[in-house]
């Protein structure tokens, strides 16, 4: 373990023990009497710096991340009070959000959320006291200020994505502030985004280009991380949810001030495109590039086909310092591989209650992925879309992906490599789990309760019969004991930045050549042809890429495929205003209690989601509005 990581963990523990349940409305900041001690020297001040990072680390628990839990890419099996984690995030798509007790509440720090106002206040305390340590060098002080401004910006940005217009905590209230002074009003969405960007612009010049001392500082913010986040912030600000959204055209605060712009500003897309290109340039200048090399751990007999699949898996699960594509991740490991790996050995069944394999992938998520021709399965002229649920027997030609001689769904054949790298399905090859030779590789057996991966109990049943294979390290082993080889969930990687740039460029300029350049970089790594060539040769709608609207649809789908299960789709679908459409249809899986292939491959509804216009933004807890009469509730709640 790295020494700075130990420090950070210690600070997190101390913060959790000492921070009271007071909210941002408090007149007196926490720990006033200890501030002199906290900044008496460089070492103590560094500990306080890590306390500013602490909330960021806590936010990386994916089950409390709206981008992960509310996207419906993965669904959880039941509404029981699970002893593994707080499942309120997954349950939100069931319509269980309330104003009295909001789920994953980052405004107040309840139900899985962290109190971001407290996090921002700690950042302000750091900035207010940074001059006190007499042994802090000027260069280090400049860097720390930049880091804290980045963190302050990110915490504000996270709240904007959830709540829209927010209270900007530019400075902390003085100790003697009156009750009226602490009751602050929300700024408009445009003001909120502008403040975040201004903080990032102040931070970026003083951040290090790279982390030189990886043994002690890995995970701290760099210039290319901040530039990439700025690109995402500006793209979010330009997106339909926040840019002239007619659903919020009349949303005002209690003084009559409009909190959303009444018309869309096309220039926001140009600003976003420019920021994306600048971030790409900086990332590539620091040596970042797409992950294209097979895993470094030696394996036995492995075909070139399977090596490509393993490369696509390892770009998520490889060690951060070995991954040239990873822009940003956090020290908190993924931690849920016992939910993503199916049981594949006789001995593993004894661990079903502890490692339940219950992160379930709906059919709709699996059907996002393209055919091997690089177009959607319902558009490919050569793909038998109508009969995709019909059983078909695996053969040697597909032996790197599907067990030869085993019946699986016809729709599992002739799919793109990302499908096989991302989805664990009945009959699908699962390389790893202790066997590093393709000739003896495991395959998933999921049909019926007698199958190894089939239903075992209410709490140990994968309700769709498919697993997020992408979130399992191939070196992890689920057998008589469970041994997880941990990894850091990406927060941003270069492929996502490429697609963000393609999106912003298409929105600002239409389908120009450079848009295709950056989409096709990502597709090429997945073994696919370029967008125009693929649609021209195989799609029933060959002209789709030639219009802004058609290309927008392609880019959105490409992001959903490339970044699937990475905690991005929940945010993307919200900012695009497409989540309501995704959740307007029943969520389905296979008929998991059936052992016969013909009966198993009959879609069954597992959840009827509940999502309306109001759900695009989180509600503010009713009690907060009662306390602060300058606040009003978000629309439709």
TrEMBL record:
Example of a GO cellular component annotation carried by this entry: cell outer membrane
Signal peptide residues on this chain, from the entry's feature table: 1-25
Database matches in Pfam families: SusD-like_3 (PF14322), SusD_RagB (PF07980)
Keyword annotations from UniProtKB, A to Z: Cell outer membrane, Membrane, Signal
Sequence ranges assigned to domain SusD-like N-terminal in this UniProt record: 23-226
Keyword Phosphoprotein in record: no
RagB/SusD domain ranges (all copies): 324-637
Matching InterPro entries: SusD-like_N (IPR033985), SusD_RagB_dom (IPR012944), TPR-like_helical_dom_sf (IPR011990)
Record localization: Cell outer membrane
Annotated family: Belongs to the SusD family.
Protein's UniProt name: RagB/SusD family nutrient uptake outer membrane protein
Lineage: Bacteria, Pseudomonadati, Bacteroidota, Sphingobacteriia, Sphingobacteriales
């Amino acid at each position: 373990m790295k020494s700075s990581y130990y420090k950070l963990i210690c600070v997190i523990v101390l913060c959790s023990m000492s921070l009271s349940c007071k909210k941002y409305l408090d007149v007196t900041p926490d720990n006033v009497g200890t501030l002199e001690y906290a900044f008496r020297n460089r070492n103590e001040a560094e500990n306080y710096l890590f306390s500013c990072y602490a909330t960021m680390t806590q936010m990386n628990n994916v089950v409390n991340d709206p981008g992960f839990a509310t996207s419906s890419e993965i669904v959880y099996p039941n509404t029981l009070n699970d002893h593994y984690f707080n499942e309120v995030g997954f349950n939100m798509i069931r319509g269980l959000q309330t104003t009295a007790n909001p789920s994953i509440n980052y405004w107040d720090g309840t139900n899985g959320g962290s109190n971001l106002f407290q996090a921002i206040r700690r950042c302000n305390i750091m900035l207010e006291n940074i001059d006190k340590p007499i042994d802090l060098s000027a260069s280090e002080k400049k860097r720390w200020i930049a880091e804290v401004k980045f963190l302050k910006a990110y915490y504000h940005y996270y709240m904007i994505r959830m709540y829209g217009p927010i209270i900007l905590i530019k400075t902390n209230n003085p100790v003697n502030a009156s009750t009226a002074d602490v009751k602050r009003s929300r700024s408009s969405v445009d003001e909120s985004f502008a403040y975040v960007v201004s903080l990032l612009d102040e931070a970026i010049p003083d951040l290090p280009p790279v982390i030189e001392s990886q043994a002690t500082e890995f995970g701290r913010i760099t210039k290319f991380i901040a530039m990439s986040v700025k690109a995402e912030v500006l793209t979010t600000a330009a997106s339909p949810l926040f840019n002239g959204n007619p659903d919020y055209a009349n949303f005002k605060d209690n003084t009559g001030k409009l909190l959303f712009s009444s018309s869309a500003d096309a220039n926001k897309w140009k600003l976003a495109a420019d920021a994306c290109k600048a971030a790409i340039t900086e990332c590539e200048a620091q040596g970042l590039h797409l992950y294209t090399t097979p895993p470094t751990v030696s394996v036995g007999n492995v075909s070139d086909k399977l090596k490509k699949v393993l490369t696509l898996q390892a770009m998520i699960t490889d060690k951060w310092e070995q991954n040239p594509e990873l822009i940003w991740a956090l020290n908190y490991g993924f931690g849920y591989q016992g939910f993503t790996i199916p049981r594949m050995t006789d001995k593993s069944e004894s661990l079903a209650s502890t490692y339940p394999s219950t992160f379930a992938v709906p059919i709709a998520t699996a059907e996002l992925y393209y055919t091997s021709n690089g177009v959607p399965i319902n558009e490919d002229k050569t793909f038998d879309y109508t009969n995709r649920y019909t059983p078909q027997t695996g053969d040697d030609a597909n032996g790197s992906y599907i067990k030869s001689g085993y019946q699986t769904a016809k729709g599992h054949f002739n799919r793109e490599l990302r499908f096989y790298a991302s989805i664990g399905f009945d009959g699908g090859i699962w390389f790893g789990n202790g066997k590093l030779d393709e000739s003896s590789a495991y395959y998933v057996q999921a049909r019926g309760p007698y199958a190894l991966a089939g239903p075992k109990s209410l709490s140990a049943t994968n309700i769709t019969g498919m697993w997020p294979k992408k979130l399992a390290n191939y070196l992890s082993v689920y057998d008589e004991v469970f041994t997880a080889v941990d990894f850091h969930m990406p927060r941003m990687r270069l492929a996502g930045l490429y697609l963000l740039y393609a999106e912003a460029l298409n929105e600002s300029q239409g389908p120009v050549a450079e848009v295709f350049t950056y989409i096709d970089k990502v597709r090429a790594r997945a073994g696919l042809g370029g967008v125009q060539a693929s649609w021209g040769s195989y799609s029933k709608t060959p002209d789709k890429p030639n219009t802004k609207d058609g290309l927008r649809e392609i880019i959105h789908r490409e992001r959903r495929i490339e970044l699937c299960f990475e905690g991005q789709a929940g945010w993307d679908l919200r900012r695009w205003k497409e989540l309501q459409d995704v959740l307007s249809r029943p969520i389905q899986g296979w008929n998991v209690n059936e052992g016969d292939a013909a009966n198993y491959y009959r879609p069954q509804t597992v959840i009827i989601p509940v999502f309306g216009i109001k759900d695009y933004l989180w509600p503010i807890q009713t009690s907060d509005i009662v306390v602060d009469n300058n606040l009003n509730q978000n629309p439709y709640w």
